[in-house]
Design goal:
The protein is mainly beta and 309 residues long. It contains three helices and 22 strands.
Amino acid sequence: MHINTPDTASTQRLEQLVAKTDFLRLTTSNEHYPNAMGIGLPLLVVETALCSAVISLQGAHLLEFKTTDGAPLLWLSPNCDFTPGVALRGGVPLCLPWFGVNQAYPDKPKHGFARNNFWELGDAHLLSDGAVELEFLFLSDANELFPYDFSTELRITLGKTAKLELTINNTDTEDFDCSWAMHNYHRVSSLSEVKVLGLAERKYFDNFENYAEKYQSGEVNFPGPVDRVYPAVENALIIEGAPRIEITHHNCPSVITWNPGTEAAGKIADIGAGNEQFYICVERGAVLKEKWHLSAGSSQSAWMEFKQI
């Protein structure tokens, strides 16, 4: 599939928008992460009295977030590859218009293609409470991977918390199904000690066993590889570790927990052996049987918010 890149007009619009603010600046991955792999990508840096953050225009991908007096809440791999069209490892990738392996067509790219393409920053402004609100847009015409027209809006609000609100619009003349996830990589100080609270005594589907249905006994921990989908989770989740993080949501029924474990991490080039010890993925979305059905001309929205507690 063709990977879009910013054209001259969209770059000029971005520069003009950033120039009107005192909380945004444009940089590149080569400047911000001088030891990183890849030829480089444009980045937005957010700096306010409340927080700081870094966002890649590829994927509208939140890479870093911390409040002024808090700890970094996201993990970005030291082996992240900043090459256009390559998925970025860490932060909050947006997996859509499908999550994981495409269930109907397994040969298609994992996690869709929105995270591999550039989004346009449509607006950026300060709210009355001092938080920053950024609005990103991604348009997709019918193509060989997804034969429907759709658009996606992502509103990122950064202040004392980080909130991501996703809207998917079916701009086609036919109905379609889509699955999606906000694929949070949260920083932890010790993989062996961290727990995820809020999923005990629930059923889950184990991706290591072709999504076999299993039962969660006690809280979720990570003694080895974990790749699970928990359906119909309405409550908030807490990552019990350092930092301690609360994740809330609206209309994100699915929870995905993932860490590859030591052996697999060593075989994943953009993670690397030992780096799996410093993050867990606790994701919210709508996947498997909880995927969205969008009739022609319709939209659905959801949001996910996280903060240090």
